[in-house]
Design a protein that fits this description.
single chain; alpha+beta; two-stranded parallel ribbon; two-stranded antiparallel ribbon; 40% helix
Amino acid sequence: MYPHERSLVKRLAGEPFALLGVNSDRDREKLKDVLKEERITWRSFWNGGSTRGPISTAWNVRGWPTMYLIDHKGVIRHKFTGSPGGETLDKLIDELVAEAK
């Protein structure tokens, strides 16, 4: 999903949009190399090296990937377990960005 996420960050630069990632990779040092190699410029949190880490536990994540679309008021508007597909995701994000303006 990194290429699509990179395109979103680039396309929505300057807009009321933020992308946050959560990674459950076991080896944090190796993860740092992957984030650099994949040119991850957005905030990405480490979930303690487990899919049962503190972030996924707090958010009740049970499948990977899981995505939450949160509006400008902090309300979860959509939740996806698995990828919803690029066009669908872009459309929903564009709608939320338009509402935030």
